[in-house]
Design a protein that fits this description.
The protein contains 16 helices and 13 strands. By secondary structure, the protein is an alpha+beta fold. The chain folds into 3 domains: 132 residues, Beta-Lactamase (2-Layer Sandwich); 99 residues, Winged helix-like DNA-binding domain superfamily/Winged helix DNA-binding domain (Arc Repressor Mutant, subunit A, Orthogonal Bundle), CATH 1.10.10; 158 residues, Alpha Horseshoe (Serine Threonine Protein Phosphatase 5, Tetratricopeptide repeat), CATH 1.25.40. A 6-stranded antiparallel beta sheet has the order 2-1-6-5-4-3. The longest helix is centred in the C-terminal third of the chain and has 27 residues. The radius of gyration is 25 Å and the shape is flat.
Length: 407
């Protein structure tokens, strides 16, 4: 009988041969849904070199969405469930996200490797996925479809499975108008508020003229993409972006966190982690990061960043409740990269490192915290943090951990 190592080699060789010999953009995944093979056509289609994707979770690379704007690549997605059942998965109408942030319509097909060369939680090949491009046909798009809006990282628009190219719009300020309305989704915004924020130097007459021209331009661009211009509704002297006519990643992001928080409160740690992970994948960069100097979105950017960092802290706690302290430490470090002054995250890492048997690393973490707080804020670690450090260097915390393990 072949051992698992031999099975892994057999499965991987078979999958890599399928990948390399395919004329389509093709890649292979293992039992953890990590990419183990990536051909030249896939590089050309998505813009990622092989070294950038190997060992990455396939959903993190594809970031696929259905034609209605709903995310396809989420934890426990339909594709993962099919592969777990050793069944092929296909998505004939979806879009994947290119490295540059634009969406491309594709047909996704797959081949599942034989059950005889596959086993659970394996690093051997599970499936080979084929990505076949579809030429967008705007003339066939139906009026009134959902506009999919990406606000995290590079701003993007998609409709009917096709990526739009707002950077090619004749009037760039029409895009600015759309972004402003996105930040106030569902709210009725008076024209004077729009003019004051978007064209603060314009007088009343020229400001109203600019607004009128750009409202017309925005509706024209939406119309040409097959989207009903009623998505932008006029209410007297005000405008609103209709909530039900758009899918926005930042809204989905907060919905995922709300669901995850509910699971966490019910001590459903694994379910909470799934939802938090989905939110983490949606957060591909700061909110409207290309408009870094625009004051009208600065507050929302800061708010969503805070929501994101707090979510990561809660995700780390959930991992810890499941006894996965290594993953909890990994998530905590992500928080500190963005905001190194979060002292409670330093304490969290110190405790989890001790639980992993790395007391020396926990002490190093304290000294790092000490340096950061002094440099950035001119303060010393709190009494609580110093007390934790004293327990670590005295071995007291080690002893407590050992006692709990024995119990």
């Amino acid at each position: 009988m072949l051992n698992f190592s031999a099975l892994d080699e057999l499965a991987n060789a078979a999958s890599l041969a399928l990948v390399e010999n395919s004329a389509d953009a093709t890649f292979a995944i293992d039992g953890t849904f990590s990419i183990i093979g990536w051909n030249l056509a896939a590089q050309e289609l998505m813009g990622y070199a092989t070294t950038e994707v190997i060992n990455q979770h396939c959903s993190k690379v594809l970031q696929a969405i259905y034609s209605n704007g709903e995310p396809l690549c989420v934890p426990g997605c339909e594709g993962a469930r099919c592969f777990d059942r050793l069944e092929p998965f296909n998505a004939p109408s979806c879009s994947i996200r290119h490295k540059d942030g634009t969406f491309m319509p594709i047909n996704l097909d797959s081949v599942v490797l034989s059950q005889q060369i596959q086993h659970a939680d394996s690093r051997s090949a599970t499936a080979v996925i084929y990505l076949r491009t579809v030429k967008p046909q705007p003339q066939n798009l139906k009026n009134g479809q959902i506009l999919q809006i990406s606000t995290f990282g590079r701003f993007g628009l998609a409709a009917g499975g096709s990526s739009l190219t707002p950077e090619k719009w004749d009037r760039k300020q029409a895009l600015l108008l759309l972004k402003f309305l996105v930040t106030r989704l569902g709210r009725v915004i008076h024209r004077e508020v729009l003019i004051e924020n978007l064209w603060p130097d314009a007088d009343e007459k020229s400001g109203r003229a600019r607004l009128k021209v750009n409202v017309h331009a925005l509706r024209r661009e939406l119309r040409s993409a097959g989207i009903s211009e009623s998505i932008l509704e006029t209410v007297g002297d005000a405008y609103t972006l209709r909530r039900e006519a758009v899918w926005i990643d930042s809204v989905m992001f907060e919905n995922c966190i709300a669901t995850g928080t509910n699971h966490q409160q019910q001590q459903q740690w694994a379910e909470a982690i799934e939802r938090f992970t989905e939110a983490q994948r949606l957060y591909r960069g700061d909110y409207l990061e290309e408009d870094i100097h625009a004051q009208w979105c600065a507050e929302e950017r800061d708010r969503l960043r805070e929501v994101y960092l707090n979510m990561l802290a809660n995700m780390a706690l959930c991992h810890a409740h499941l006894g996965d302290y290594a993953e909890a430490v990994s998530v905590g470090r992500i928080v500190l990269v963005d905001d190194p002054c979060r002292e409670h995250i330093h304490r969290m890492l110190m405790e989890y490192l001790v639980k992993l048997g790395h007391s020396d690393s926990a002490a190093v973490q304290y000294h790092h915290c000490e340096v950061v707080l002094a440099r950035e804020l001119g303060v010393e670690p709190s009494r609580e943090t110093r007390r934790l450090y004293d327990q670590i260097i005295s071995g007291e915390l080690d002893n407590l951990v050992q006692i709990r393990q024995l119990e």
